[in-house]
Design brief:
Blueprint: H1 3-21, H2 30-58
Helix pairs in contact: 1-2
Length: 70
């Protein structure tokens, strides 16, 4: 359930990217679409930067055994 909001932002970012591809540069919404895309990409980048160190600390290398501390 916690990934659902991030997944929604990811899908919206992809839609914005496609919409921007098909919007002429002369269209008044083009700069607004660029800003929206930049904001959503920055948001996703910050989420990835925050999650990556946690994910790496929880990863067990092949052949190693993880023993819980008591």
């Amino acid at each position: 359930l916690l990934y659902k909001p991030v997944d929604r932002v990811t899908r919206s970012t992809l839609v914005l990217h496609d919409l921007l591809k098909h919007t002429p540069v002369s269209h008044p919404d083009h700069p607004l679409l660029q800003d929206a895309l930049r904001i959503s990409q920055n948001f996703l980048s910050s989420i990835n930067e925050e999650i990556t160190p946690r994910r790496q600390s929880m990863t067990v290398k092949k052949g190693e055994v993880s023993v819980p501390a008591f």
